[in-house]
Write a structure and sequence with these properties.
111 residues; alpha+beta; Glutaredoxin; 4-stranded mixed sheet; 5 helices; 4 strands; 45% helix
Length: 111
Amino acid sequence: MLKVVFLMLSWTGLIRCFHQILMSATFVELHIILLEKSQNGKHFLDNKKLKKTFYYTDHISSLDFMTEDIKPPCIFVKNATTTELIMNSSELNKLISVDELIDRLNNLIDD
């Protein structure tokens, strides 16, 4: 089964980002959280039969697929033998809605 791995900021980082959301309209972490919590996001994940895992930057040292050049937030796809970065932080930061994230993931996972 294909597994989607979401790497997000630590709780301290989330608090900083929460402050930023009050100051701006873009908030990548919120899109990732909404992917799991929103009706559209749940429907997408259930239809794709994707297993999902959320990690925070506090866990980076235990993740064997992380390298120094990868900055959170980011999204990986993992199968039995490989883990592939499919969306890096700069790509995620360009998204404006959870629906756009779903569309983008849909295209990437189907490829």
